[in-house]
Structures are given as C-alpha cells and as structure tokens.
Amino acid sequence: MAGHIYKTIDLVGTSEAGVSEAIQAAVDRASQTLKGLEWFEVGEIRGHIDNGRIAEYQVAVKVSFRVMSHDELQAEA
Amino acid sequence: MAGHIYKTIDLVGTSEAGVSEAIQAAVDRASQTLKGLEWFEVGEIRGHIDNGRIAEYQVAVKVSFRVMSHDELQAEA
Amino acid sequence: MAGHIYKTIDLVGTSEAGVSEAIQAAVDRASQTLKGLEWFEVGEIRGHIDNGRIAEYQVAVKVSFRVMSHDELQAEA
Amino acid sequence: MAGHIYKTIDLVGTSEAGVSEAIQAAVDRASQTLKGLEWFEVGEIRGHIDNGRIAEYQVAVKVSFRVMSHDELQAEA
Amino acid sequence: MAGHIYKTIDLVGTSEAGVSEAIQAAVDRASQTLKGLEWFEVGEIRGHIDNGRIAEYQVAVKVSFRVMSHDELQAEA
Amino acid sequence: MAGHIYKTIDLVGTSEAGVSEAIQAAVDRASQTLKGLEWFEVGEIRGHIDNGRIAEYQVAVKVSFRVMSHDELQAEA
Amino acid sequence: MAGHIYKTIDLVGTSEAGVSEAIQAAVDRASQTLKGLEWFEVGEIRGHIDNGRIAEYQVAVKVSFRVMSHDELQAEA
Amino acid sequence: MAGHIYKTIDLVGTSEAGVSEAIQAAVDRASQTLKGLEWFEVGEIRGHIDNGRIAEYQVAVKVSFRVMSHDELQAEA
Amino acid sequence: MAGHIYKTIDLVGTSEAGVSEAIQAAVDRASQTLKGLEWFEVGEIRGHIDNGRIAEYQVAVKVSFRVMSHDELQAEA
Amino acid sequence: MAGHIYKTIDLVGTSEAGVSEAIQAAVDRASQTLKGLEWFEVGEIRGHIDNGRIAEYQVAVKVSFRVMSHDELQAEA
Amino acid sequence: MAGHIYKTIDLVGTSEAGVSEAIQAAVDRASQTLKGLEWFEVGEIRGHIDNGRIAEYQVAVKVSFRVMSHDELQAEA
Amino acid sequence: MAGHIYKTIDLVGTSEAGVSEAIQAAVDRASQTLKGLEWFEVGEIRGHIDNGRIAEYQVAVKVSFRVMSHDELQAEA
Q1: Homologous superfamily of domain range K5-63
Q2: Cβ pairs bridging D and F (under 8 Å)
Q3: Which residues of F touch H12 (CB under 8 A)?
C-alpha cells in the first residue's frame, strides 16, 4: 500500500540579517500560498556584497509539503 | 535548431513495502496530473521508524516530462 | 527585514548544436511563460547518440526568477 | 530554548534478498539495543558476488534516535 | 609486496520489476563473460516511464573482478 | 610514532531559534557525557515546519573528542 | 524479467575549438569501434594551456552502449 | 565579446557569536584590502570547542570581486 | 533471511610520518577495544602545520566491525 | 626528491557568446598577469538572464601555473 | 579539428605496505598490458583488516591512456 | 566580537616518492613565502605516468594561514 506523497519546491530566501532569517523568509513565503508544509532542507548559502558590506544573505531552501496520493485521488473520484 | 524541453519536479514517494514501491508511488502520483512523463531519477532514500520497525520508506524522486519548446509555442501562436 | 524571494525550476534543454545552445533553449522556454528570470545554473550535461552521432545535447538547467515576498504579499492584501 | 537531540549511528545491513531487506536488517538490529529510533538514511549500496551470483546486498544505513537533551539531563540531576 | 589487483567495469542493468532486480540483471550479465567477480557498487538509480507507468528501472552498477597482478604475470612468463 | 586519536560522533541538534543555536544544543549535549571535545563540523541543515512556521531547525553536527591512543593505552597497562 | 543491459566506457575527448567539439570527438571515436551507442554523460571539463592560450579542451565523457543481456546470451546458446 | 572577470579568494572567518557573524568577519576582512567585492559563497562550517563550549565558529567563505578583463587591460595599455 | 550486520565508527588517526601511518594509528586504536574489525574507509586527509613544517597528518578513518545480527541475538536469548 | 609546484587560482570568466568563450575569457585574463599557465579546470557554470535572454554565461575556472619549488628557491638563495 | 582521445579504466590496486604502494601496484599492472599510459587519478581509499591489523590497503585508481582518434583511424584506413 | 581570519591558497605538490612526500613538497613551498601556516587539506590525488611507471604523484593541497583580522588592521591604523 502506498503512503503519503510530498512535493518539494526550490526557493531562495534572502535577508540582510543573517542565515536563519533568510531561511525563515523562504518558509514564510511558501506558507502564503501552500498548505501542508512539513519540512525544509538548506542548500547553498551565498550572498551579495555591496560597498564592502553584506547586503543580503541568499539561502537556497527546499520546502516540502504533502500532496494527495494516487490512492487518495482515486478515492475522491 | 532547438529540440525538446523537459521539466523536472521533485517528489517524495513513500511506502511501507520497500524502496521500489516508494518510487512507484511517486511516479503513480505524478501520472495522475501530468502528461508526457518520460523518466525519473532517485535521490535520497530515507525512512521513518516507529516502535522499532520501518513504518515507511521515503524516496526522493525527480520526475521529468516533456513541455512544449519555445519554437513549438511560437508556431502555435 | 526580509528581502526578495526567488523560485527555482528545473528544466532540461536540448539542442543538436552544442552545450550552450541547449542551455539557451531552456532559458528561451522559461521566458515564454515566466516573468522576472534572473539567473540560471547548469547541472548534468548528457546527450543522446543515434547511429553513432550526437543526436542531441541534453543539459539540466535550473532557472530562477523573483516572486513576491511574504511582506510584499501582505502589503498588497 | 534548545529542543530534542538525536544521535546517529552507522550500520551496514546485509541480505541475500534485496536492497530493502538489507535496510530492514540494519533497522531490526538497531531496535534490539536502542530505544527511540526515529528515522534512517541510506548511504552506499554495495554487495558481495560469489560464484557469479549476488551472495549478499550490503547497504550502509544511518539510524537516528532521540537522546535526552542537555536541559533534560540538567532537570534530572 | 604488491597484492591482488581488481578491475571495475560500469554496467547499467534494467528490470521492470524493481531496483534489486535491475542490479541482479547487471551482475548476471557480467558473470556470463567474466570470471572472478567479487563485489558490486550501485551508482545512479533512474528509470523510464511509459504511458504513466514505470517501464523499467535503470541502475548503474560497478562490477569488480580480480585480474592477475603484475607479479603474477611476471611469474607466468 | 603515532600521535593523538580522535573519535567523531554524529548528533542532530535542534532549536526553534536558529541554525547557530541548534549547533550549540548539540555541542552542549555532547559535553554533558564526553570529556575532551575538540571540534565540530556541520552537515545537513534541515527543519520541521508546523502550521506554516519553522517549528525547529535541525542541524547535523559531527563532534570530535580525543581518545587515548594505542600507545597511551599500552603504556597504561 | 530482466531487460536490456548497457555498458559504459570512460573517454576523454579533446579539441582546440571548444567544449562541445571535445565531446563530439569522444563520441566519434567510440562510434568507430562500438555498435549500439545510446547516450553520453559529461564529467570533468579541463584543458591544457600553452603559451598563455587554451591549447585544448579536455572533456571526460562516459559513453554507454547496449550489450546483449544474460537472457539474450542464453537464448543464443 | 568577453565580459567582466571575477577573482575568488578563500577565507575562513571566525566568531564566538554564530555562523552569520563568522561570515561577516570574513567579508569585513576582505573589504579592508580589496575593492569591488560582489558576492560570497559559504563552504564548510566547523568550529573549535574549548572546555565543553563552542569557543569559535569557523566558516569557510569564498569572496569574489571584479578584476579588469583582458580587453580592459589591453585598452589601458 | 537477514545476514551479518556491521557497525561503523569514525576515528581520526594522526601521525607525523605520513598518510598511511595515520590510517594505521586509527586502526591500531580501534583494535585495542573492538573485536571483529573487518574493513576501513579513508575520508578527509588534513594536517597541522607548526613552524612551517607538517606537525601531523590527520586522517579521518571509518572502521567497520561485525556485530551480532537481530537473528543471532534472538537465537541467543 | 620534490618536484614542481603549481599554484591554482579561482576566476569566473564571463561571455555573452557561450560556455567555451567564458572559459577562454578567464584564461586570457590570467595570461595577462601570470607566466607559466599549464592547465585549467571548469567548476560551476551559471549565468545572468536579462529581459528573458541570457545576458552572460559565467563559468568558474581554476587556472594552475608553475611556481618555483622549495628546492629551486633554496638553490637561488 | 579534433585532438587526441584517451580511454580511462578503473582498477583497484592493493598493498600491505601503504597507500602509495597500492597506487603503484595498479599502475604496474596496467602497464603490463597497455601502451601509452599517461596519467592516473585516485578514488576511494579503503582496506581490509585482519586480526586487528591492516592486511591490505585497497586504492581505486583510474588509469588513462591514449587511443587513436577518429581522424587517425580514418587516415589509417 | 570577531576572531581570527585565515586565508587558504591552493597548491599542487609533486613528488616521485609518494603521496605524503607530495603533500610535504607543497607545504614546504608555502612556508618559504608565507608566515603563520596553520593547517592543510588534501584534495585530488593524481599523477603522471611515463614509460609505464609513475613519474610523479600530484596532490592538490589547500594551505591555510592566519591573516590579521579586520579589528587588528583597524587597531594598527
């Protein structure tokens, strides 16, 4: 029997405050338009430097959320 | 001349039966809502343990399908 | 304060001409349906061989574009 | 405030039946001596060949379980 | 003193049944034409989708077998 | 002459505050039961999302500490 | 039932013209002595510099071709 | 026509406060002696533990800055 | 039927003599307190420099040893 | 006896024409200020998109050149 | 114009003496049956432990040698 | 408060004797022109084969040394 299915999308969150804040920005954004967010994974951490200072941290964040499985879709039909 | 274009989405399929079944669950789910699936690639293999037993295998699966190319979209317009 | 948010999608561009042309095909396609494309990253480079000759180069390309941030969405509401 | 802490150990499970069975063997073994197993991650998949046949699948499995956090240990003292 | 020497070849085994069966297909094939197979290592796991169903699992398998060492070759001469 | 020997254990620290706090939680926990901690290395950064918000950051941390070498053990015997 | 089996060989193609041309050189060479070439994958891209100019691009290319499966070999016997 | 050229240097920034602060320390240092810093990329995150506490976070940071291109150098000559 | 189970521990061996000697130091140490060591795998090779000279090579070594399987533990009970 | 020593620097070459041209731009630049360039290795391939079109390919290139060895420096003193 | 073509084979050299000796064993073996060896690359370093001591170092070595290019083969015909 | 800052440079050391000797050659060279070397990390291990024998081991070595921090530079001004 098949179980839950999750979909993962790739975002880049940015913040001038730090790494954790940039992650949070990405998750906040995802939660505006998606239901059922379950976990995130952090990828590349980069950033933009302007005039010798860190202008923004840019953190790649994979956000995963539950979608209805094949069986659930069938049951609904 | 440009050729076909494919789009790849990231799913996590789960199954209590095994790795291959979890992959299958992800592909089954993708085929419910997408046409033109062509291939998949397996990423991380993980799982949840409950009460000392494997409750579910969780397999990250990238599923790719054909989308209309720039030229095909132009020709249609 | 949170900054811009970007979304990244995975495409595979193909071309019979070469690697750069396959990248271009993927970006061209993305620009047909998405606004605000900012950068791309090249992943796996593969290809199909037919009758002893390269029939097409297949290049995985991640294309990133700006989406409205959580704050911008809030401000709009 | 700090949350839960998990410890991860590295096992190699083996089975003559297949990949999923080798993963299961590793988790079964861990559950004999450890409480609070929560998840596993699969690493390298290898195997031994004997007389031209697969004698055993050998799968590296990281098994994680909850340990008491620093705060919990302090509270207990 | 130098010891045994092994050679590793790269195969892709396929099966419509599952991941372990595709590995087995690769090892079975190698054992038809090579003596002294000792171990295998699994690489990329992919597959072909046809008409919304997994048509075949494709598993990259490195198969290693013993070859005569430099010293053994010398001794034979 | 052989030198010091170190052992490395794998922990996952969690915190609702951020990445650095999760690392700290793991190191704090290790220092409760182990002497001679010398360095740590950060692995995967993940997290749990609950109700659209980051419930906890989960950071894999390898913590290394000095153990007595073979020679030191011999000298003690 | 087992399906097709493929063998993969590692070549390094070189060209003074560019990356795509070096890939092509590798595939051209493989097609001189091997039947049934199906796909290639690009690995490391390097090159030699002579007198301040790129003397040649050197591209590692894995070329895969179909071999007869265990079952096909059995059927032929 | 060739465009801008960037040079990337590898630094390790350290801080007793956290990961983001260690990144900042590296960028601050680079901006003391280099003009035209544009972006950074974070590599390995490690740290030193002293007396059971994190004495410093050590973060590998690649810092990139613009250098004059071959054409610009030619034009200046 | 499940087969043998192995446990893998992470050590860092050090030596002022060279890479192989540092690996040996780690294995020697493991064999002081563990029975049934079977194989090792080398990870990161680093070292400490003192006064312009290599003071010690530091080699991460994973050492694996056999543990009793679930079935063997059951049989013993 | 020690042999030659090489130093490797990290550049990012850019071009609006393609991947090979961006590599060339980096090597051209290096050869303006460095003698004894011997080889290059290509890292990440990225690019900037402007108004839906590839504005520039950005290719990370490691360029290596010979430096005088310790022994040669000693001999010169 | 296409240049030289190289073929790479995968060997595992072993030695009871150390890492460099195991590499040498693999190269020695390759040179018995192949002409035109040009370079090698070291992969995974592992080993077998017997009775608490390193019985042999096992080093994966890719050995590359020149093969005649497509053009050279054509010219010969 | 910011701590020490380190800079890392990439060298390739070579030796006809072995891997450890090639590492040593790189560190020896670095110590001729740089003060405050602290640690090294080994990257790719390759080598050149001449006339069927290993002519030289080529080992990529990252060497790190302390540079004055931003605060120290400021204090000096």
Answers
A1: Flavin-binding protein dodecin (3.30.1660.10)
A2: 51
A3: none
Q: Mutate which of J24, J49, J51, J53 to test chain C, going by most C C-beta atoms within 10 A?
A: J49
CATH number of this structure's domain A19-62, picked from the four choices 3.30.1660.10, 3.40.50.150, 3.40.190.10, 1.20.1090.10: 3.30.1660.10
Angstroms from G14 CA to nearest CA on chain C:
15
CA C10 to chain centre: 6
Beta bridge partners of L48: K39, L56
Residue I43 touches partner L, C-beta closer than 8 Å:
no
**D7, β-bridge pairs:** D65, F11
- K34 in Cβ contact with K43 (< 8 Å): no
Tell me which DSSP letter residue C18 carries. -
The C-alpha of G54 sits at a distance from chain J's nearest C-alpha, in angstroms, of: 7
Chain A to chain F, count of Cβ pairs less than 8 Å apart? 42
Taking the CA of residue C67 and the nearest CA in chain J, the distance in Å comes to 15
Phi, psi (degrees; rounded to nearest 5) at J28: -55, -45
Q: Which chains touch G (3 or more CB pairs under 8 A)?
A: C, E, J, K
Residue J16 and residue H3: Cβ atoms within 8 Å?
A: yes
- Does the distance separating the beta carbons of A9 and B10 come in below 8 Å? yes
pLDDT tens for chain L, 77 residues: list them: 568 999 999 999 999 999 999 999 999 999 999 999 999 999 999 999 999 999 999 999 999 999 987 777 777 76
Give the CATH superfamily of F5-66.
Flavin-binding protein dodecin (3.30.1660.10)
Q: Count the neighbouring beta carbons within 10 Å of the beta carbon of residue L32.
A: 16
Chain I interface includes K19 (CB < 8 A) = yes
**Closest residue to D39, CB basis, from B20, B49, B53:** B49
Task: Select from H45, C66, F48, C35 the least CA-distant residue to A12.
Answer: C66
> What does the alpha-carbon distance between residue C26 and residue C29 come to, in Å, rounded to a whole number?
5
What fold, for J5-60?
Dodecin subunit-like (3.30.1660)
Enumerate the β-bridge partners of residue J54. J49
**What residues pair up with I59 in beta bridges, in sequence order?**
I13, I45
Residue (of A49, A9, A55) closest to A31 by Cα position: A9
CA distance readout (Å), H41 to A59, G2, H10, H63, H75: 10, 46, 10, 7, 31
User: Can you identify the CATH homologous superfamily of domain E5-64?
Assistant: Flavin-binding protein dodecin (3.30.1660.10)
Q: Cα(E46)–Cα(E64) distance, rounded to whole angstroms?
A: 21
User: HSE-up of I37 (CA within 13 Å, CB side)?
Assistant: 25
Is CATH 3.90.1150.10 what the domain over D1-57 is classified as, yes or no?
A: no
Just give the CATH number of B5-76: 3.30.1660.10
- Greatest CA span in chain G, whole angstroms? 58
Q: Is E48 on the interface with B (CB under 8 A)?
A: yes
Nearest CB to A67; choose among B16, B29, B56: B29
Per-residue tens of pLDDT for chain A, all 77 residues: 558 999 999 999 999 999 999 999 999 999 999 999 999 999 999 999 999 999 999 999 999 999 987 777 777 76
Query: pLDDT for L1-16, tens place per residue?
Result: 568 999 999 999 999 9
I touches which chains (3+ CB pairs under 8 A)? D, F, K, L
Q: Confidence band (pLDDT; 50, 70, 90) for J77? A: low
Interface check H72 vs J, CB under 8 A: no
In Å, what is the CA distance from J43 to each residue of E76, H20, J3, J23? 46, 26, 27, 10
CA distances from L22 to L42, L46, L55 (A): 10, 11, 12
Q: Is the ipTM of this complex over 0.90?
A: yes
Rounded to a whole number of angstroms, the distance from the CA of E33 to the nearest CA of chain B is 29
Structure tokens at A65: 């959320």
Task: State percent of chain J over pLDDT 90.
Answer: 83
Domain ranges of chain B: 5-76
